Amino acid sequence: MPRDPRYDILFEPVPIGPVTAKNRFFQVPHCNGMGMSFPNAMIAMRRMKAEGGWAVICTEETDIHPSGDLSPLVEGRLWDDRDIPIFARMNEAVHDHGALAGIELVHTGHRDGCLYSREVPIAVGHVPVSTGYPVQARAMDRADIRNYRRWHRDAALRARRAGFDLIYLYSHAGSSLLGDFLSRKRNRRSDEYGGSLENRMRLLREVLEDTHEAVGDTCAVALRYVVDEGLSEDGAANMDESRAVIEALAEVPDLWDVNIREWRRDSMPSRFGPEGSQEEFIGFVKRLTTKPVVGVGRFTSPDTMVSQIRRGILDFIGAARPSIADPFLPKKIEEGRSDDIRECIGCNMCVTSDFTMVPMRCTQNPTIGEEWRKDWHPEIIPAKASDDRVLIVGAGPAGLECARSLGNRGYAVTLAEAREVLGGRVHDESRLAGLATWGRVRDYRVQQIQRMPNVETYLGSRLSAADILDYGFPRVVLATGASWRRDGIGRFHATAIPGLADIAVFTPEDIFAGAKIAGPVVVYDDDHYYMGGVLAEQLRLQGAEVTLVTPASDVSSWTAMTLEQTWIEERLYQLGVTVKEKHGLSAAGKGEVRIAHTGSGREQTLPCSSLVLVTMRLPNDALFHALEQALLADAGIMSLTRIGDCLAPSTIAAAVYSGHRFAREMDAPPRNDEVPFKRELITLE
Ligand code: ADP
Ligand code: SF4
């Protein structure tokens, strides 16, 4: 299909200093858990985005010197010439598809602590390392500043030799020396680099000039700048100073990449902010400079993108998450296939890989991080290897993704769902407070399979083992999901909570099914991801008195990984939910529960009419066990496989991955004892 002319503006070339981007789609720097540790994977992931039509592809943060070693985080590294080949390989791949390659150079100052290099971290002043290690950074003297400028310049020259077209400087107080020097709060120096704004800006200006002078004839010099940095102590003055910096340096960088303070706001989870939520902060920047401006906002709608350009907010549509969820987003718009965009749901599962330091995963895109090690392409899947008909039982995220991918391969697929709705847990969970966007996991897949004549979907079809044997599909896939326990067993309690028979007990599924919950309510959360917190929020919004009890030291503690934890905590406090952290549930009784502090064992009693248990789930695998007993071959069944939560309950991302994996591997020869992917092995000297 030809592209919609309304979107032509997105495909205009835009000059950036001495180089030109072929369109306005700009993959801004983002971490990915691969970087220097899994370079083949990182290269293949970036290459895929170039193939998908992004005009600019940037690296993640790349540290430039051992005194700014950001280990143990897995990011980019450019300490000396031996680091060039990884980037040269990435850039060849990016250039092959006509895209520009950018590198984000950074010295993180006192942020990370030099855990690998064991150098003494250097910083704007004497200051403890932010990550909490019992280490301090030392204040930089003039010689250190001269050295730092030289390292940055050398890194820029190396980056050019590696083939980069854009060289980034990174200014973010708390995450980079340049930002720390700018910050009135952090910069307490009394020399020419501290005090007045002009002095605090000196280092940034110098490094910008150094970079221009070193590589600016052939490379664009980009500045990533946090517009509400907290440059000064009182909120009102923050933006004034930020604006003053942009005014003073307006024409110095070739590109302004602007974003906002705190990662949790910059990568705003969809539960707490909509698409385009940065506009109110960054909207003024373009009025102060003639240089192109890029910004992010979890943009997935081409109409919103066009509006950003037409209204003069941005020149480039910046994206990290939308480019992860759909590396082919630009191509799809270009080819008039916007409906095929696999929209990011804003769950931030991708972000977790930065903390866990393993290759990135994404709820919507099961192939991300697998491009090299499994040779998975997000848009291409091998054609079917047989005419086997496949029955998939259950249309949650695992069943839907399995049907979509097998359907793409050309298999004849029958998808049977017990309920009258598709989506399984995603259908239920996306109706909870703030989680509507998560429904995209279902919507994308349903929309795709509806167009496939070879995929038939049956609602209201709860299948029994007898049904399945009777149908005799050669391939049977069980994606029947999982159910929450109602006995309190989980991470903290290995045996059932005594007294549950005396109180009204509910699981999340009961609440999804519309159970009437009388207050006071106790939500006991031993799951630690979002479910306990979001149910407490939901029940409180419905008017109940709610206490959330958890053995963890924070509410929804694992959501720190998805940048949601502090938002959740704030919301629960605002709503008046009482929170009891570090408490287990010792017993339940009529109208009350007893809880005990995990450290001291001290007990207290809480009034409770309804107890909601969010601890762990058990697979719905009765069907599997019934079929296991049957003579499958006699029924013509060649394979019976469990996928998703039916095999082992996990995240929605894991269910999607499981469905996708089965679809790819169904007809592959079994590789029982082999490592199921290519590994990145270190070569010994
Ligand atoms: P997953 O996350 O693994 O995809 P879900 O729990 O989201 O799992 O989805 C499982 C789906 O399977 C639910 O929609 C459920 O209604 C459906 N289901 C469970 N048992 C059967 C069955 N016997 N026949 C048809 N559908 C079933
Ligand atoms: Fe978007 Fe979630 Fe995928 Fe990240 S993991 S790109 S937030 S869908």
TrEMBL record:
<keyword id="KW-0285">Flavoprotein</keyword>
<comment type="similarity">
    <text>In the N-terminal section; belongs to the NADH:flavin oxidoreductase/NADH oxidase family.</text>
</comment>
<keyword id="KW-0408">Iron</keyword>
<feature type="domain" description="NADH:flavin oxidoreductase/NADH oxidase N-terminal">
    <location>
        <begin position="10"/>
        <end position="339"/>
    </location>
</feature>
<dbReference type="Pfam" id="PF22620">
    <property type="entry name" value="OYE-like_second_a-b"/>
</dbReference>
<protein>
    <submittedName>
        <fullName>FAD-dependent oxidoreductase</fullName>
    </submittedName>
</protein>
<keyword id="KW-0411">Iron-sulfur</keyword>
<dbReference type="InterPro" id="IPR051793">
    <property type="entry name" value="NADH:flavin_oxidoreductase"/>
</dbReference>
<keyword id="KW-0560">Oxidoreductase</keyword>
<dbReference type="InterPro" id="IPR054428">
    <property type="entry name" value="TMADH/DMDH/HD_second_a-b"/>
</dbReference>
<feature type="domain" description="TMADH/DMDH/HD second alpha/beta">
    <location>
        <begin position="507"/>
        <end position="595"/>
    </location>
</feature>
<dbReference type="InterPro" id="IPR013785">
    <property type="entry name" value="Aldolase_TIM"/>
</dbReference>
<keyword id="KW-0479">Metal-binding</keyword>
<dbReference type="Pfam" id="PF13450">
    <property type="entry name" value="NAD_binding_8"/>
</dbReference>
<dbReference type="InterPro" id="IPR036188">
    <property type="entry name" value="FAD/NAD-bd_sf"/>
</dbReference>
<dbReference type="InterPro" id="IPR001155">
    <property type="entry name" value="OxRdtase_FMN_N"/>
</dbReference>
<keyword id="KW-0288">FMN</keyword>
<dbReference type="Pfam" id="PF00724">
    <property type="entry name" value="Oxidored_FMN"/>
</dbReference>
